[in-house]
Structure to design on (1069 residues):
């Protein structure tokens, strides 16, 4: 633990040997699926004519909603209900009577190959009654047009939380400010889209499903229910996943049900591999919010009252409940403790792609609202922006700190640990905060505009309910580890192996980790909410400890020693101080199983030892054969990581192009298991955040068509747009909530981007930035308007 | 993202390609495929026949002629960019090609393909127009030369007849004492530009060509315009477009900035060029 161990995954990935769902080869009989998607944002379906498809060579089946029966014909599940979600709506696997966004699935074709399947899709004739669409939050709030006839005002949910009397505190404060802010839609955009392959095994009466997901257990449960199968009849396997970033935690996708449905009906394996345009228009987006902030503060910039109202665009349906806006509303507070806080949000329907968590999951929006407010307070008072923040920090001796709010997991929003003043000091040092004004003046003298910004965040990570792990020491001494959550590039095979190597006392190279396979670990939750290291990491550690305890017990018996006198080093158990009295873990594994399969060397070696009590059965009560350890970790609540970013930008006075001169990150995720992997997560997050702040947006037109549904026009940054160096410093404030003292690190890098770039550009330009992302064209428009005097 | 069904023929000669095209009104030439294949995959184009010219011998040459440099239909962007002859005879071609897409795309895409694809956002069509170059084509009616000014009819529309194959393009040589420059502003490295400009300065004559500003590659004569009025003079003859990456107003600003930059750079290039000639 704590070592920058090289990732074991890299060999495979860098040499093109990764194995993704589309690489799963279910043999020559495999059929391929394509989906007919709505070309309209809002329409009633009057008729679907599939006649022209049926005589196309190579087509095996066409499904529309009329062909679905039982649970398959019902709406998809609402995964996370909430009492405030009074008008939750989910789509059907195939549209029933109405479509509510461009891209909604209408028909599912299965054919010999994807070419024929797409030809068939093109021949289906649908008659629509096109309805006026609701696009954008303004139209949604106006409520003149409705997405769902039975949802007045397009209002899916309204939730209010308040601690203290925020409005009274603001009214009584010496100074007051109001801010109107917007932040636009973007999306996760994993390079591997969604994909599912299914094979029905008639001989075994069971289903095998490979899917590119962040939760194989979730998909398994959903598929079993929808297809009317017992859970035990369904295996879900998640091979390598080429990025998730949140979108793949949504389940079941229509295709995740239709593929196995067709595979069982047709008796042939079926594969669906999403293409890029489909990913843009039929997976999920995030981030779009409009915010109104009122703040009251004193002469030092201490926030006495904070009142935030925001409107959240949830797209056409709400399968993932209110998770995103709830996180915005609670995590907005970051490292600060306002005197009183009130937050109200409305989650609104629009005729656009659904909104579900995208890395950061509502936090980037909250951080943006809070940090824009801090900057506005500092500007109003003429104070240094770091001073105003420091005046509002929760202090190190105030932990655990209970905000008095309810967090995303339904538990209290209670920060476990942190040291924000120390982080700020490190950040100021790292970015050269105090020297910047002189630099800015020097550049200004040359006609150049530079600006600096900073933003702070706190991230609730590692939410429950639980995660488990299974550790098995084979007779070869090799250790097989299984945990149920999935991997989409994080390096789980490396960090979990590090934890096992440390706890069990085996060589890192001897540990092999499997994730996301329900055959190996049927009880699991999933990889999201920066929870894998905290949840599965802790479970793996506990399971390794159990295996170790058992190994010591058996070895003590074999070596006729006290377990307390034994140690395990590099896979050998020995008596401390007596290295000759030793036994390999592989041999201990042989001894753990009274049925000796004398196939290997380890079994022969084991004959020299005798263990067990002859007066008891070979497997005594409360014992199990085999050298295994299994355990689960379930925390009382989330653990709160934190960090602060600063960026220095230069803006071109003529072209309004923004260049990043320096990017600095101070990051605190408790104890580091592998600093290299944590830094990799930060690099990736920062890169994704740069995309979100300066390049990406979802360009919907008024009719609800997504105009930039390709990588040509959705400007995900290339490596050429990301600065060569990102300066990182760590602080390690351990969490008291788990045995390793760790906190999540997966999402952190992306959280402060919109806030930190808005701040830096504002500083360079002397213009108030109230809308993100910002392109050179936007900045030019803003310069011309000059309507927001600072 | 799979193309609709199409027939495919691999032409062994230009004549064979021409007759295949003439025989099928739905036929299309396939060169490097870097523009055509994406259109097929997204089913934005569905030709009934693809006439692949990649195996036609003798089309990949880049040769220096008396009046300029001739680029064969199968010369890849990368080969043209690498050519010292091109750089020497007409440096504007090399300057502009460096902005065409990314290395992997330049390895397949052809410069002539780009010229006849007639995308107003592409670099090479406007370069050909600015230099007064031409394209040599062969069709059922024989060979002809199309001057660049007659080549571009509208967005993605060239004056090639359906059965004509472009066999080469001629980029005229840089005149002694003349200077050229190229610049563009793109959102990301290697992207199609939001706006771009190429300048040719020859004695008092100043001409600037624009890409991604209007819906066809457009050249504006700015001879005699004072330096501080260049941008406005250009804008008087352009109507910048609006799209999701840039408003018309922002594009106009880029025209101002780029015009000033490329004219100044072309002037200093001319001065340096002049000195070189003198030596
Ligand atoms: C990601 C990406 C980025 C790109 N960025 C840029 C960029 O920044 N700037 C830029 O200019 N281009 C860019 N391109 C396009 C690239 O330059 C293409 O190679 C070029 O536009 C077409 O050349 P091609 O040989 O690939 O033609 P093809 O794709 O094979 O053909 C294009 C069209 O021209 C016709 N055609 C081609 N050759 C002939 C011929 N000899 N006779 C008659 N008709 C012919 C075809 O029938 C077709 O209609 C980009 C492409 C991609 C994929």
């Amino acid at each position: 633990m704590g070592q920058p161990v090289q990732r074991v995954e890299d060999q495979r990935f860098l040499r093109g040997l990764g194995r993704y769902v589309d690489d799963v080869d279910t043999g020559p009989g495999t059929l391929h699926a394509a989906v007919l998607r709505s070309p309209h944002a809002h329409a009633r379906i009057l008729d679907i004519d599939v006649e022209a498809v049926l005589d196309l060579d190579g087509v095996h089946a066409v499904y529309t909603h009329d062909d679905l029966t039982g649970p398959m014909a019902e709406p998809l599940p609402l995964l996370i209900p909430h009492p405030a979600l009074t008008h939750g709506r989910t789509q059907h696997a195939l549209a029933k009577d109405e479509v509510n966004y461009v891209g909604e699935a209408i028909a599912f074709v299965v054919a010999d190959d994807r070419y024929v399947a797409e030809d068939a899709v093109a021949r289906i004739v649908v008659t629509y009654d096109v309805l006026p669409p609701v696009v954008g939050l303004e139209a949604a709030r106006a409520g003149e047009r409705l997405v769902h006839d039975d949802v007045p005002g397009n209002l899916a949910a309204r939730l209010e939380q308040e601690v203290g009397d925020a409005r009274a505190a603001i009214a009584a404060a010496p100074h007051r400010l109001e801010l109107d802010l917007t932040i636009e839609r973007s999306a996760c955009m994993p390079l591997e889209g969604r994909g599912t392959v299914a094979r029905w095994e008639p001989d075994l009466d069971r289903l095998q499903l490979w899917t590119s997901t962040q939760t194989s257990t979730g998909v398994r449960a959903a598929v079993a229910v929808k297809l009317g199968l017992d859970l035990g009849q369904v295996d879900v396997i998640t091979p390598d996943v080429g990025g998730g970033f949140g979108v793949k935690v949504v389940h079941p996708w229509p295709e995740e049900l239709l593929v196995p449905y067709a595979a069982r009906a047709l008796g042939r394996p079926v594969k669906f591999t999403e293409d890029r345009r489909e990913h843009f228009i039929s997976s999920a987006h995030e981030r779009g919010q409009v915010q109104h902030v009122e703040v009251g503060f004193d002469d030092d910039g201490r926030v006495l009252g904070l009142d935030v109202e925001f409107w959240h665009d949830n797209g056409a349906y709400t399968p993932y409940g209110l998770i995103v806006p709830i996180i915005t509303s609670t995590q907005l507070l970051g490292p600060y403790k306002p005197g009183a806080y009130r937050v109200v949000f409305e989650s609104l329907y629009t005729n656009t792609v659904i909104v579900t968590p995208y890395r950061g999951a509502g936090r980037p929006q909250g951080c943006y609202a809070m940090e824009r407010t801090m900057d506005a307070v500092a500007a109003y008072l003429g104070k240094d922006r770091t001073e105003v923040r420091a005046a509002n920090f929760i202090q190190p001796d105030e932990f655990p700190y209970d905000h008095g709010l309810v967090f995303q997991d339904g538990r209290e929003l209670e920060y476990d640990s942190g040291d924000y003043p120390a982080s700020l000091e490190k950040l100021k040092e790292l970015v050269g905060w105090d020297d910047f004004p002189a630099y800015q003046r020097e550049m200004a003298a040359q006609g150049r505009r530079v600006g600096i910004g900073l933003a702070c965040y706190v991230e609730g990570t590692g939410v429950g309910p639980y995660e488990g792990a299974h550790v098995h020491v084979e007779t070869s001494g090799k250790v097989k580890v299984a945990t149920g959550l999935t991997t989409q590039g994080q390096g789980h095979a490396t960090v979990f192996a590090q934890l096992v190597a440390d706890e069990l006392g085996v060589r890192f190279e001897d540990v092999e980790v499997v994730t996301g396979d329900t055959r190996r670990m049927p009880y699991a939750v999933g990889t999201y909410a920066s929870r894998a290291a905290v949840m599965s990491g802790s479970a793996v550690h506990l399971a390794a400890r159990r295996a170790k305890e058992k190994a010591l017990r058996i070895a003590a018996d074999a070596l006729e020693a006290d377990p307390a006198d034994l140690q395990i080093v590099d896979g050998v158990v020995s008596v401390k101080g007596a290295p000759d009295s030793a036994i390999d873990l592989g041999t201990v594994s042989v001894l753990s199983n009274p049925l000796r399969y004398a196939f290997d060397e380890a079994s022969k070696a084991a004959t020299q030892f005798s263990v067990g009590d002859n007066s008891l059965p070979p497997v005594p009560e409360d014992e199990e054969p085999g050298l295994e350890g299994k355990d689960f970790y379930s925390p009382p609540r989330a653990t709160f990581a934190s960090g602060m970013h600063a960026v220095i930008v230069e803006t071109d006075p003529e072209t309004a192009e923004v260049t990043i001169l320096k990017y600095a990150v101070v990051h605190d995720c408790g104890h580091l298991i592998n600093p290299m992997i944590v830094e990799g997560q930060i690099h990736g997050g920062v890169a994704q955040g740069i995309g979100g702040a300066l390049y990406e947006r979802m360009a919907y037109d008024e009719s609800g068509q997504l105009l930039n549904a390709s990588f040509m026009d959705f400007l995900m940054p290339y490596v050429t747009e990301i600065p060569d160096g990102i300066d990182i410093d760590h602080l390690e404030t351990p969490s008291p909530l788990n045995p390793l003292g760790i906190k999540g690190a997966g999402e952190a890098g992306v959280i402060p981007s919109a806030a930190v770039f808005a701040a830096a550009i504002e500083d360079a330009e002397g213009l108030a930035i109230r809308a993100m992302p910002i392109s050179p064209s936007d900045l030019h428009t803003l310069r011309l308007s000059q309507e927001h005097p600072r | 993202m799979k193309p609709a069904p199409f027939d495919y023929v691999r032409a062994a000669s230009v004549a064979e390609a021409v007759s295949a095209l003439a025989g099928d009104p739905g036929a299309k030439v396939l060169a490097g495929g870097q523009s055509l294949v994406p259109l097929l995959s997204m089913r934005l184009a569905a030709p009934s026949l693809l006439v692949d010219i990649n195996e036609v011998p003798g089309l990949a040459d880049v040769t220096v002629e008396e009046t300029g440099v001739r680029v064969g239909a199968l010369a890849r962007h990368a080969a043209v960019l690498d050519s010292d002859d091109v750089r020497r005879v007409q440096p504007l071609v090399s300057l502009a090609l460096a902005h065409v897409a990314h290395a992997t795309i330049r390895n397949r895409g052809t410069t002539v393909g780009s010229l006849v694809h007639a995308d107003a956002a592409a670099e090479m069509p406007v370069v050909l127009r600015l230099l007064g170059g031409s394209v040599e084509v062969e069709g059922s009616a024989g060979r002809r030369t199309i001057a660049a000014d007659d080549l571009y009819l509208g967005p993605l529309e060239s004056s090639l007849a359906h059965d004509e194959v472009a066999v080469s393009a001629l980029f005229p040589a840089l005149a002694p004492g003349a200077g050229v420059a190229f610049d563009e502003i793109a959102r990301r490295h290697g992207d199609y530009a939001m706006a771009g400009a190429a300048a040719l300065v020859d004695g008092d004559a100043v001409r600037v060509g624009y890409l991604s500003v209007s819906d066809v590659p457009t050249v504006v004569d700015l001879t005699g315009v004072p330096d501080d009025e260049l941008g406005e003079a250009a804008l008087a003859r352009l109507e910048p477009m609006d799209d999701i990456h840039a408003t018309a107003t922002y594009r106009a600003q880029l025209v101002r900035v780029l015009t000033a930059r490329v004219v100044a750079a072309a002037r200093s290039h001319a001065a340096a060029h002049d000195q070189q000639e003198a030596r």
User: Anything to note?
Assistant: The radius of gyration of chain B is 19 Å.
